[in-house]
Design brief:
The protein is α+β, with helices and mostly antiparallel strands. It folds into two domains: 47 residues; 128 residues, no CATH class. The strands form three sheets. Strands 3-4-7-8 form a four-stranded antiparallel beta sheet. It is globular, with a radius of gyration of 19 Å. About 8% of the residues have low confidence.
Length: 181
């Protein structure tokens, strides 16, 4: 068998396996999966993937709206734009970030969590709190109890993200930009 034929067969195997896993997921929990057609980057096979805000080209895609207001009020808009462009150019979005954002969107829709503020580091994502009416939520395989806060700290310069949860985060004094390190 030629190397080209072998590579083609291997590619077809992985495509079929991916399709099988998506179908199995859909059969097991159809209400939990909403798919949109979106080819994966560099892939023209038309694989199904769940869309989320990370698919946007907007540099403010995960920045909290309260952070945006404070940045504008403080006259730091251009500095934030420069940092966000630098951040997203080096950021490798993995399935961890995608799962986090999709889960957060679903929890917000179900009114189980609320935005509490924003994280002090670029890209200044929202900090969320589990509502008092909710016993706990599951995020990235971890249980976050009632009243606790959580955030996904996106890694700088391609470093992995870090999920952080605590009873409460104290408000920091300043936002941290790249050159502040």
């Amino acid at each position: 068998m030629s190397e080209e034929t072998h590579e083609d067969a291997e590619k077809q195997y992985w495509l079929a396996l991916t399709d099988y896993l998506l179908v199995a997921q859909g059969l097991k929990a159809p209400e939990a999966i909403q798919f949109d057609l979106l080819p994966a980057p560099g892939d023209r096979s038309g694989l199904l993937r769940r869309l989320c805000k990370l698919d946007s080209d907007d540099i403010w895609k995960v920045t909290s709206s309260s952070a945006k207001r404070e940045i504008q009020r403080a006259g730091e808009w251009q500095q934030a734009v420069d940092d966000l462009q630098e951040h997203w150019s080096a950021c490798l979005i993995t399935e961890v970030e995608r799962e986090y954002e999709i889960t957060v969107e679903e929890l917000l829709e179900r009114n189980l969590i609320e935005e509490k503020g924003y994280w002090y580091c670029c890209p200044f994502p929202s900090v969320y709190r589990v509502r008092n009416s909710t016993p706990s939520v599951q995020i990235l395989g971890r249980t976050v109890p009632r009243g606790h806060e959580f955030v996904l700290e996106y890694g700088d310069d391609g470093a992995p993200s870090n999920f952080i949860s605590a009873a409460s985060f104290h408000k920091g004094a300043d936002r941290k930009y790249c050159e502040d390190e």
